[in-house]
Design goal:
This protein is an alpha/beta fold and 334 residues long. It contains 13 helices and 8 strands.
Length: 334
């Protein structure tokens, strides 16, 4: 394998009733370590560049395959993927490693999880970094109902609620096609018109095709002029893993959005730790405008814009993301 596909040795932790696979690098004495949490459809491997750069800078990093993904268990019940399980998994990982507090860094769905950590386990959180994913107040109504009214039945998160699991089958029968379609640099677009308040990170950007299962089903890589983000070797890591695991575990995270919303009633959404928000200029689904007003819920917030990047920021602009994480970590935590 090339350097770009080399990861530290895979290790396992018993946490919250599951076996979790994780990767660790950097000095064991470094405090607080940084826990890197991936999104959908991704893996700990998505953080390969940051694992190398941060550990070389003397920072301890831990990157798990989260519940339902990769080397980690995939429980059958949909309810086993709610936010309470996902956050408790990370606390159990800290317990396994005998770590009292960590900085939690999350991209995409991992971002939603790490913003919840200080709300639920403040004594275990030193800081939070959101990559593309903003911290939002609790929605005024069930977020699935809002998305269904705003975007219609073909919007991918609405489709993911299908109990027949048709989206799972579409992606699962076209794994390489899925990663060919998703893991590309975007055509630069204006953020204008995406100012509508986001719900669960979804912004009403009319230029975005949000019917992702159908997009993948009709996708032809030979007609796509966008530049791939992954090398062929890197892509095969994702393809071979998801051919083995399928997509249902990760999609089950979306199937708990209504449950998470109901169970968050009365939860104080104020983030009371130092926080960094890394935004990507050309992310069509989680644009920089989605972070507008975050300061009301995150008093100790710093924002940083990565230009010329779409949604897969830590893989599209790895050096810049790594450098910012190192700089912020050193400045705020020594």
């Amino acid at each position: 394998m090339s350097d770009a596909t080399v990861m530290p040795p895979l290790q396992f932790a018993a946490t919250n009733g599951i076996r979790m696979g994780y990767y660790e690098a950097g000095p064991a004495t470094d405090r607080p370590p940084m826990v890197l949490c991936h999104g959908w459809p991704e893996l700990a491997f998505s953080w390969r560049h940051q694992i190398t750069r941060l550990s070389e800078a003397g920072i301890r990093v831990i990157a798990p395959d989260q519940r339902g993904y990769g080397a980690t268990d995939r429980p059958e019940p949909v309810e086993a993927y709610d936010i309470e399980h996902l956050t408790a998994d990370l606390v159990g990982l800290l317990d396994h490693l005998k770590i009292d507090k960590a900085i939690f860094v999350g991209h995409d769905w991992g971002g939603f999880v790490v913003w919840q950590m200080p709300l639920r386990y403040l004594d275990r959180v030193a800081g939070v970094v959101g990559v593309n994913t903003p911290h939002l107040p609790r929605a005024p109504a069930d977020p699935i109902d809002i998305m269904r009214k705003r975007f219609g039945e073909t919007m991918y998160i609405v489709q993911f609620q299908d109990p027949a699991r048709e989206p799972d089958r579409i992606f699962g029968s076209r794994v390489e096609q899925t990663f060919d379609a998703f893991m590309r640099k975007p055509v630069p677009r204006s953020d204008d018109g995406a100012k509508e308040p986001p719900v669960a990170g979804i912004v009403a950007a009319k230029t975005v095709n949000l019917a992702f299962p159908q997009m993948v089903a009709a996708y032809d890589a030979s007609r796509d002029a966008r530049q791939p983000i992954l090398s062929e070797q890197e892509k095969q890591v994702f393809v071979e893993t998801f051919q083995r695991t399928g997509f249902t575990g990760g999609i089950n995270w979306y199937r708990n959005m209504s449950r998470n919303w109901r169970r968050a009633e009365g939860l104080d959404h104020t983030v009371r730790v130092p926080a960094l928000m890394i935004m990507a200029e050309h992310d069509a689904v989680l644009p920089p405008s989605a972070t507008d007003g975050m300061e009301k819920l995150v008093p100790d917030l710093e924002k940083y814009l990565v230009r010329n990047s779409g949604h897969w920021t830590q893989q599209e602009q790895p050096e810049e993301v790594s450098a910012k994480l190192i700089e912020w970590r050193r400045r705020r935590f020594g």
